[in-house]
């Protein structure tokens, strides 16, 4: 979800919790289509200012492995397909008070793997910004060299999640970092993150929650799982969240300006039937869908790009076929 900080503390304020039902009601929500339960998230594309520096950071501190470098782009993974694609823009400015990336989450398959990730951070002297126990998951938060937010997480068993509709059930509480690391402390250092690592969720800054839900729930087809008022969490298949949406940079923030670091695009992988149905919903809603690889790309009301791609597609084609995407509001 997100570490408890001065920025996101408003998400847990009483007045926001009292708004929990404001975004769930109405005929549009009731009639919203649902994405398939087997949905998967594909590679996250980030804009960075120094490709060498960022590649080194993600290899050394996060445990990813460079799969391929092609000019100003680098693909990284952990033994399977791409998890992260870095796009170098040397003159990109730091992110500011606008819509865009809050963090992306790399989900470890076990608590032990998250413990190894925490140990790697300690052994490499990598600073973190927070660490939280959300009940549904345990998470460590840190920035990359350009300030792009990262969450390293491991889920608890689904039967322990409780009622996701109740914001009070998902914390956060402080994470027991010593207890997380202790079971793996005597092991030989791992060469890198295990192959079970995958993209777990994205969390975005947006200008307003109602508008974000009108797009991501009522058109895309994610289901609203938890609503804080100033933040909402949506998912497919009953997962706690594939996407977080918040107004913690302020309601009404504008799209990210051209030439800023941050999210270039994120990826959702769907089977052919779901992909075709979703494209039809975008057409019916008058939302432009740009062909991209074997699928298509759309932008939300703040210009944030999502690439919808066929499930099982070889992600190595991501660089060569889709190519870079400019940030900014829809044209």
Topology record:
Elements (H helix, E strand, L loop, with lengths): L13 H4 L9 H5 L8 E2 L2 E5 L2 H10 L4 E6 L2 E5 L4 E7 L11 E9 L2 H13 L6 E4 L3 E7 L5 E7 L17 E2 L2 H5 L16 E8 L3 H12 L2 E5 L3 E5 L7 E4 L15 E9 L1 H13 L5 E3 L2 E5 L5 E6 L6 H6 L9
Parallel strand pairs: 2-5, 6-9, 11-14, 15-18
Antiparallel strand pairs: 1-15, 2-15, 3-4, 4-5, 6-11, 7-8, 7-10, 8-9, 12-13, 13-14, 16-17, 17-18
What does the model show?
- Strands 1, 2, 3, 4, 5, 15, 16, 17 and 18 form a 9-stranded mixed sheet that branches. This protein has a 9-stranded mixed sheet with strand order 10-7-8-9-6-11-14-13-12.
- With 331 residues, it is of the alpha+beta class.
- The protein has one domain: 2,3-Dihydroxybiphenyl 1,2-Dioxygenase, domain 1 (Roll).
- It is globular, with a radius of gyration of 19 Å.
- The chain has 8 helices and 18 strands.
- The N terminus and C terminus are likely disordered.
Number of strands: 18
* Number of domain units: 1
| Largest β-sheet summary | 9 strands, mixed
What is the fold named in CATH at topology level? Answer: 2,3-Dihydroxybiphenyl 1,2-Dioxygenase, domain 1
Could you spell the SSE succession in H and E letters? HHEEHEEEEHEEEEHEHEEEEHEEEH
Tell me the number of helical segments per DSSP (H or I, 4 or more residues long).
Answer: 8
Low-confidence stretches: 2-30, 314-331
Amino- and carboxy-terminal Cα gap: 31 Å
Helix content: 10-25%
What does the average pLDDT come to? 87
- What percentage of the residues does DSSP assign to strands (E)? 25-35%
Helix/strand structural class: alpha+beta
Radius of gyration (CA) equals 19 Å
Within CATH, the superfamily carries the name: 2,3-Dihydroxybiphenyl 1,2-Dioxygenase, domain 1
Which CATH class? Answer: Alpha Beta
Please state the overall shape, judged from the principal axes of the Cα atoms: globular
């Amino acid at each position: 979800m997100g570490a408890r900080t001065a920025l996101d503390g408003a998400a847990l304020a009483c007045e926001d919790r009292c708004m929990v039902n404001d975004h769930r009601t109405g005929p549009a929500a009731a009639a919203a289509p649902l994405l398939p339960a087997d949905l998967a998230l594909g590679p996250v594309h980030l804009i960075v200012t120094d490709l060498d520096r960022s590649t080194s950071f993600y290899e050394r501190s996060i445990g990813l492995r460079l799969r391929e470098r092609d000019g100003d782009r680098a693909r990284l993974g952990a033994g399977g397909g791409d998890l992260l694609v870095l796009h170098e823009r040397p003159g990109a400015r730091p992110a500011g008070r606008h819509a865009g990336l809050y963090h992306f989450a790399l989900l470890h398959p076990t608590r032990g793997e998250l413990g190894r990730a925490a140990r790697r951070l300690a052994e490499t002297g990598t600073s973190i910004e927070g660490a939280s126990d959300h009940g549904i998951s345990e998470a460590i938060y840190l920035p990359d060299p350009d300030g792009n937010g990262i969450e390293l997480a491991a889920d608890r068993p689904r039967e322990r999640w409780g009622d996701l509709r109740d914001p009070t059930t998902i914390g956060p509480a402080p994470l027991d970092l010593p207890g997380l690391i202790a079971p793996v402390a005597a092991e030989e250092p791992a060469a890198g993150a295990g192959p079970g690592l995958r993209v777990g969720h994205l969390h975005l800054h947006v200008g307003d929650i109602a508008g974000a839900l009108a797009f991501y729930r009522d058109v895309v087809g994610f289901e609203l799982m938890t609503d804080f008022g100033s933040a909402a969490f949506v998912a497919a298949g009953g997962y706690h969240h594939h996407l977080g949406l918040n107004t913690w940079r302020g309601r009404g923030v504008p799209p990210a300006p051209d030439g800023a670091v941050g999210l270039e695009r994120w990826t959702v992988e769907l089977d052919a039937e779901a992909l075709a149905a979703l494209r039809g919903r975008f057409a019916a809603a008058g939302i432009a869908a740009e062909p991209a690889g074997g699928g298509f790309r759309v932008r939300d009301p703040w210009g944030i790009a999502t690439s919808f791609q066929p499930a099982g597609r070889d992600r190595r084609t991501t660089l060569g076929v889709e190519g870079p995407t400019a940030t900014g509001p829809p044209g």
